[in-house]
Amino acid sequence: MIELMRTNDAVLISFVEALMRDAGLSCFVADENMSVIEGSLGILPRRVMVSEDDLNAARNLLDEAGIAGELGKQ
User: Fold this and answer.
1) pLDDT for 35-46, tens place per residue?
2) Residues pairing with 7 in the sheet
3) Three-state DSSP class for 61?
4) Whole-model pTM?
5) Cα-atom radius of gyration of the chain, to the nearest Å?
6) Beta bridge partners of 3
7) Distance between CA atoms of 11 and 32, rounded to whole angstroms?
8) What is the structure's pLDDT at 13?
């Protein structure tokens, strides 16, 4: 799996997951349970991971949704 994006914005992650699901692409959100370690402050970013085969399609999907700028925030 390849990192598509990294953010601590839970709403953005939910939006990306919905976009991916609707497009028939699978993704995995890594580091979701890190909030237990950090004390639920939301300071540790979560990573949205996709398969290497789906990386270009996922990037295009985020571009079409107008959130491609989030890809560079790592």
Assistant:
1) 666 666 667 889
2) 46
3) helix
4) 0.84
5) 12
6) 49
7) 13
8) 94
Average pLDDT of the residues in 22-33 = 92
Contact 44, 38 (CB under 8 A): yes
Query: How crowded is residue 29: how many other Cβ atoms within 10 Å of its Cβ?
Result: 14
- Tokens encoding 36: 């237990």
Domains and their CATH numbers in the chain: 2-72 (3.30.70.790)
CA 3 – CA 62 distance, rounded (Å): 14
For residue 10, what pLDDT band results from cuts at 50, 70 and 90?
confident
Collapsing DSSP states into helix, strand and coil, what is residue 62?
A: helix
Q: Which runs of E-coded beta strand occur in the chain?
A: 2-7, 27-30, 46-50
Count Cα neighbours of 4 within 13 Å in the Cβ-side half-sphere: 30
Distance from CA of residue 65 to its chain's centroid? 13
